[in-house]
Input
Amino acid sequence: MIELLGSIDTEIFLLLNNLHSPFWDSFMSIFSGKMIWAPMYVTIVYILYSNLDKRTATLFSVAIILSIALADVTCARLLRPLAERLRPANLDNPISGMVHIVGNYRGGVYGFPSCHAANSFGLATILALIVRRRMLAVFIFLWATVNSYSRVYLGVHYIGDLLVGAIIGALIALVIYWLAQSIARRRLGYSRALFKQTYVLPAVGLTTAFGIAVYSFVVS
Output
């Protein structure tokens, strides 16, 4: 069964990975980066502090950071050394010759589960639970999905890596949110806030994505 699932995972990966062009090479490479999304992360902090009192906003900010950190450590430090699943683009992987890579980027040695997916979906889950606004939730989960898929496009993760990473990130975020919510209610007297100005996050995110698209078009 495990071999069958691995074979299916490989076939799906190769199908998706080989759908490429110069434009998407540039776009996915930039989209997959971390610092390019700094304006969006700053906007998240802005939304929290503009809608909540300082102590509650700080609590939820720490909860978000903790969710991402725990998801990253769980995948990178605990599970990858146990699974030892080579990344598709790793030269020791038999399929590496069939993998489309961008800019000679091959990632580290092991890729299961995906830290990118765990971090992205951890952030998306806890933010959606805190804010509870449909537009923001749709945007942040779409962002997490594209951010995760970029790793398949770049040849450094299988679909299975992404799925397991996303589940881990979401579960950790659920637990951290429950703890933070409990502390906020018992210690800070917090009742669920009606968040306003949440449109700012999708606006900043889409503007960043548009900038990436324009740059990618020029480069390609």
Remarks:
- The chain has a mean pLDDT of 94.
- DSSP finds eight helices and no strands in the chain.
- Residues 54-83 form the longest helix (30 residues).
- Helices lie at 2-17, 22-31, 38-51, 54-83, 115-131, 134-153, 159-188, 200-219.
